């Protein structure tokens, strides 16, 4: 995020998860913390959102149908190469989590997420 943008607007976070309840919970918490939020329930929807509303940060579920979080993050980085992200997963010991870690996210959070 550029310094000019940080002074003018709150950071925009893109939340991507096929679990509508998880998205709703994260959205409500982050809005209460002062962030602007966009949501998507699939990788394809997330790419459309990112193109229409460039985000400052992405919170991405690793395991989703059709396009997993790793594939999505690679596609998002083609749109914005320096996009910071945090992955979320309920499966701590899966190959996909290992692959996600190699992409250099800020963190990989294990669900259920301790919001504090």
Report on this model:
The N terminus is likely disordered. The two termini are 24 Å apart. A five-stranded parallel beta sheet has the order 2-1-3-4-5, with helices on both faces. The protein is globular and about 35 Å long. Helix 3 runs parallel beside helix 4. It is α/β, with parallel strands linked by helices and 116 residues long. The chain has a domain of 80 residues: Response regulator (Rossmann fold, 3-Layer(aba) Sandwich). The protein has five helices and five strands.
Distance between the termini: 24 Å
pLDDT < 50 stretches: 1-7
DSSP E strands, number: 5
User: Strand order across the biggest sheet?
Assistant: 2-1-3-4-5
Sheet bearing the most strands, described? 5 strands, parallel
Evaluate the radius of gyration: 13 Å
Average pLDDT, to the nearest integer?
Answer: 88
**Strand portion, in percent?**
15-25%
SSE topology string? HEHEHEHEHE
CATH class membership of the domain at 15-63 and 70-91 and 108-116: Alpha Beta
Instruction: Write the CATH fold name of the domain at 15-63 and 70-91 and 108-116.
Output: Rossmann fold
Overall outline: globular
Q: What is the CATH superfamily label of the domain at 15-63 and 70-91 and 108-116?
A: Response regulator
What is the helical fraction, as a range of percent? 40-55%
Assembly context of the chains:
single chain
The computed structural class is alpha/beta
**What is the count of helical runs?**
5
Q: CATH architecture of the domain at 15-63 and 70-91 and 108-116, please? A: 3-Layer(aba) Sandwich
């Amino acid at each position: 995020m550029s310094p000019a943008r940080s002074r003018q607007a709150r950071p925009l976070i893109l939340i991507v998860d096929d679990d509508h309840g998880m998205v709703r919970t994260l959205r409500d918490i982050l809005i209460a913390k002062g962030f602007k939020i966009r949501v998507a329930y699939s990788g394809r929807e997330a790419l459309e959102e990112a193109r229409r509303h460039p985000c400052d940060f992405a919170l991405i579920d690793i395991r989703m149908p059709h396009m997993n979080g790793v594939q999505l993050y690679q596609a998002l980085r083609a749109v914005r190469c320096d996009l910071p992200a945090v992955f979320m997963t309920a499966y701590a010991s899966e190959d996909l989590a290992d692959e996600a870690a190699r992409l250099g996210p800020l963190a990989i959070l294990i669900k259920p997420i301790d919001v504090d």
